Amino acid sequence: MILKTTYMDKALAEARRAAQHGEVPVGAVIVHGATGKILAAASNRVILDRDPTAHAELLAIRAACRMLGSERLVDCDLYVTLEPCPMCAQAISFARLRRLYYGASDPKGGGIEHGPRIFHRPTCHHQPEIYGGIGEKQASALLKAFFQDRR
User: Fold this and answer.
1) How far is CA 134 from the centre of its chain?
2) Residue 10, SS3?
């Protein structure tokens, strides 16, 4: 089995790819828990696709679901470089992902540990195990550099 940091390294590579295209640098990877196989990897494509829902998490969830032929990812784990927003948190819940590993916290737009804290709502369908701070330094540095270049 590959180490968790290796999966986050792949997500960070996806985030760098997003930045190269002028997208907010967020990358996501979905891993099959039993085998350790990467099912999907994606980066933000909001601008490229002209789609406000084209967040890395949603693109990876869609690809993994297609690969497994199911709307559920119960034995799968998501690695993402930034705390998911509320929209992505809901999708994570609906997909029934087993675990969520994220890098940098997002006090302004996050939906897991900040903002609406989607998984703590009584109406939430499913709450994955949550592990924050994986690759946090690299993810934060990527985001800071991206936004400094835009100012």
Assistant:
1) 12
2) helix
